[in-house]
């Protein structure tokens, strides 16, 4: 299933369900068939995403420093899509919608 995030300030952002649910959980929204992120909620949402991204980056750095990766582990790391990469379209949408004073809605 796909989640579609829409705002009058930006183009539509489409995400796979598991990625969208993860991001909605991070910003404190209940992942459902539809919802809204109001302009007033956007600064907190951006902060929550930033904190989660920093936490993941710190954890990955510690894991990498704790052991020497074998060849198959290195290949898996190259294929891993980080939270920062998955969140980037929504972060951009949040920033642009906030700047223009437009809410973001989502639906499945």
Share in β-strands: 15-25%
Query: Which strand order do you get reading across the main beta sheet?
Result: 2-1-4-3
Number of folding domains? 1
End-to-end separation in angstroms reads 7 Å
Architecture overview:
This protein has 108 residues and is α+β, with helices and mostly antiparallel strands. It has one domain (2-107). 57% of the residues lie in helices and 19% in strands. The chain is built from four helices and four strands; from the N terminus they run ββαβαααβ. The chain has a four-stranded antiparallel beta sheet with strand order 2-1-4-3. α2 (42-66) packs antiparallel against α4 (83-100). The mean pLDDT is 89.
Question: What's the helix and strand layout?
Answer:
Blueprint: E1 2-7, E2 10-16, H1 17-26, E3 34-37, H2 42-66, H3 71-79, H4 83-100, E4 104-107
Antiparallel strand pairs: 1-2, 1-4, 3-4
Helix pairs in contact: 2-4
Give the gist of this structure:
By secondary structure, this protein is an alpha+beta fold. It has four helices and four strands.
Keywords, separated by commas or semicolons:
alpha+beta, 4-stranded antiparallel β-sheet, 57% helix, 108 residues
């Amino acid at each position: 299933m796909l989640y579609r995030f829409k705002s009058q300030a930006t183009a539509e952002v489409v995400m796979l369900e598991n990625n969208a649910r993860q991001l909605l959980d991070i910003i404190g929204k209940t992942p459902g068939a539809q919802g809204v992120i109001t302009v007033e909620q956007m600064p907190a949402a951006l902060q929550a995403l930033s904190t989660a991204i920093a936490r993941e980056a710190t954890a990955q750095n510690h894991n990498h420093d704790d052991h020497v990766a074998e060849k198959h582990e290195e290949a898996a790391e190259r294929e891993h899509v980080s939270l920062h990469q998955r969140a980037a379209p929504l972060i951009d949408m949040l920033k642009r919608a906030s700047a223009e004073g437009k809410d973001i809605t989502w639906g499945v």
